[in-house]
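During the second half of the funding period, the structural biology subgroup turned its attention to how the target accommodates small molecules. The most pressing case was zinc ion, which had performed well in the primary screen but for which no bound structure existed. We therefore specified the complex as follows and requested a full 3D prediction, including the ligand pose.
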Amino acid sequence: MNLMRSVIVLVVIDLLGATAFVQGRAGSLLAASPQVRPPAPREVLGFEPGDDRKLADWSQIVGYFKRLASVSGRISLQEPGLTTERRPLIYALISSEQNIQNLPAIRDAQRKLADPRLIASPAERDRLIAETPAVVAITCSIHSTEIVASQMSTQLAYDLASADDPDTLSILHNTILILIPSPNPDGVDIVANWYRQTLGTNTEGREPPELYHHYAGHDDNRDWFMLNLKETKAVTHLLWKEWFPQIVYDVHQQGSNGSRFFVPPFYDPPNPNIAPLLLREVGLIGHKMAADVTAAGFKGILTNALYDTWWHGGFRTAPYFHNSIGILTEASSARLMTPSNVTREQLSRSSTRGMRSAMEATTNFPNPWPGGTWRPRDIMQMEMIACHALLSLASNYRADYLRNFYELGKAGLAPVDSGQTLAYLIPAGQGRDENVAKMIGALIEQGVEVYRLDHELHGTTSAEVLATVTGERGAVTHAIVSISDKSHPVAEIPAGSYIVFLDQPYRQNVLALFAPQIYPDRTTATGEAERPYDVAGWTLPLTMGVDARAVRFIQERPSERKLTLLKNENEVRHDLGLTPWSSDKSPVANPIKPRIKLAVYKNSRAGNMDEGWTRYVFDTFNVPYQSLSETAIADANPRARFDVIVLPSEQTRATPDGEAPETQRGIAEAGYKNLAQFVEDGGTLICFDGSCGQLIKQLKLPLRNSLDGIRSSDFYCPGSVLRIDVDTANPIARTMAKDTSAYFINSSAFEATDSGKVQVIARYGKESVLQSGWLRGEDRIKDKIALAEVTMGKGRVVLFGFRPQHRGQTWGTFPFIWNAINLAGR
Ligand SMILES: [Zn+2]
C-alpha cells in the first residue's frame, strides 16, 4: 500500500515553505477543506479549560470531542468500549485530513514496522520509514485527582484541529496523535461530582473519600502487564494490537509542595530489560520539554529524580516493553481545580530522591520556584507546552523514531546467545488451569506470542529431556527441540503445553515478566534502604503459581509436528476445558461452598486499594459478598448476618469509642468488640497484612509482628516474591504446594507469643527466602510465621502476614483465601 501518495486531492500550497516540512516525505501539504469552524472548548463548555474552580465532567468532555470531530476532518473519534462503571471510553485520532482519510493503510504500515517479519525487503522497510507518520499517544488523568490534563485535552485537540500555522501543519502531516482524554472516565466523574458538591465548603479542593476507580483507585496505573481492569485492557489493545505508537506520554500530577514539574530522564535504577536506546530517547524528549517549559518562563523544573523505570506495571514503563518511548510528567498539583498557596517553608522541607530541597538549585533542578499562588492554569500551560514539545520532536525526527522502533523489534528477533534462555515452557497438566489461562491470556493481549504444542514430546535420556517439533512462526521456521532444564528434569512434554519463544519483537517483555527481578541493594547516606518508586519484584509465573521452565537448549530435528500460535485467552480456555469469555461477566467458576455468607470490610471514610482489589478478586471468581462499613460493624455483632468477614490490608489506629465520627479513620474499639464476639460465636475472620496489627492488639491474639519497629537498614522488602514453606496437612493449605511463592510488600512476619494457641499454616522459608525483588535482612524473616490460624470460642481468626490477593495479581495464593472461607461451611 502506497500510503501518502494514495490520496492526491485538494490543493497543493507552497506558501508555507518547504522547510517546515522536514524529512522529505512524499505527499503534499494540503489545505483544509471548506468546513464549519471548529468550536473552541469555551463555546461548548461555557468556560476556558484550566479556569479556577471549573471542571468539565466526563459527559462534557465526550460532548466536546464529539462536537469537534463532527466538524473537523483532522479528528476521528472512536469509542473502544465501556468502563468498569459503563461509561464510554473514547480516544481521538488527530492528524492531517489526508492522514485521517488514510488511517487503515497507516495502521497497516505501523503493524509492519512493529513486526519486521512482515516486511518483505529492505526497500519496503525504507519506503515505510519514508512515508509513514509517527504515532504518538497522549493519555491524560489516569489518576483522577490529577485532573487538569483531562481538561487540557480539550484545548490540545482544539488547537490541533483549528490552527493553520506551519508548525501545526507539520505536526499534523508527520504524526498521528492518539489523544485519550482519560483512560479512567469513571474517576473523572467521581472527582467532578465530589468537587462540585464541596465547592464553597471547607472541604473544597480536598480529594474524594473513595477510590477513584471502582476496584483499583490509584492502582489503576499498576495494571499494565496483568490487564485486570477493563480500561487497561482496552488501552493496551488500542496501543499494542492496533496502533503500535513510537511514543507514549502519560500526563500526571504530583504533590503540591515540591518541584513544579517533573520531566524525564528518570531516576535509578533502570530496569535491565529496557533497551538503552529507549532511555536515551526518553532523556531527549524530557529535556526538550524541560527547555521549552523553562523558555516559557516557568521555574521549578526537575529532571533525574524520584520516578524510576524499574517497575513494569506502570504506564510510563509499559511502552518500553513494546519498543516504544514512554514519557511521564508530573506537574505540581493545585487543590483539584482550586488554586493553592505554597510557602517557601513548605518548599524547603520538600525533598525526594534526586532533589535535596525544592529551594536548592542543582544541575537537574537549576531554577527553583520561589513559592506563591499555584493555579490549575499553570499546570495546564506546562502540560500544553510539554505536549507541543513532544509532537514537535515526533514531527521533526519522524523517520528516526520509526527506524529506531523498527530496529528494536528486529533486535528482539535476533538469535539468542548460546547458553541463554531461548524460551519459556509452561507444561500442560499442572492443574491450575484458570491461572494458566489468565496468565497466557494477559500475555497475548499485550502482544506476546505464545504457542501451543500440538503433540506430546518424549525424552530419550533421563538427564536431558528431548523434544522434536517443527512449526511455522511468522516468517521464521523453527525446528526444535531439545529442552533441557537441569534443575527440573522432566521425562516428557505433554501435548497442550505452551511455549513462549524469546525471538519475538517483544523479547524484552518476556524476559521482564518471566525472569526473576534482582533489585540492586541501594542505600541512602544514612544507611537506610532507598525505597524504589513502586515494587521490586513481580515475576509472573511465581505470583500466578504457574510452573514455567526456562528452555536453554533447542536442537534442530526434522519432524512433521506443528506449533499453533494462539490468538486470545478463549483459545487457551477451550484447550483447558474452561468456560469461555462471552460477555463482560467473568466466566471463572465460584470456588466457595454455597450458603456461606461473606462480608468485606470497606472503610467508608477513605478509599483503600487493597479493599478494592479484594472485591475485584471476589467479583472475578463470582464469589458473592457484601461490603460492611465500620459503622455497621460497631452497631451490632455481624454474626447474625455473616459467616466470614475479610479485613483487607489497611493500617489504621483503632478509633477510641466516643471520638467524633469525622475524625474516625477505621474500625472503632466498639467494632473490634463486635468482631471478637463474631468469632466467639463461630464466625471466621480473615485478616490481611496491614490490618493484622490492630486486630492482634484489640483481640489480644497470641502473636506479634516481629518486623515492627525495625529500621530499613536492618530489614527491608518492598514488593517482592518470597518463598514460604506450607504445612500442606492444614485444611487452609488444601491444593497448595509445600514450596509456594507469596507476595510481600513491607508486610508482616509473626511470632507466636503462646505457641500452643497458634496453628501455623505457612512460614517464610528457612533459606533462599527471596525469589524475586529485593530482600535486605533475610535473617529477620527466615522461618517466621507467614500464615496462621487462631481459634477463639467457636470460631477462628486467619491472619495473613503477606498479601494473598495483591493487586489481583497473585493468583498463586488465592486458594488460601478460598480454603479459609470454605472452612466456615464445614
Ligand atoms: Zn499520577
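Two results from this model are relevant to the next phase. Residues 1-32, 459-491 have pLDDT under 50 and may be disordered. The two ends are 66 Å apart (CA to CA).
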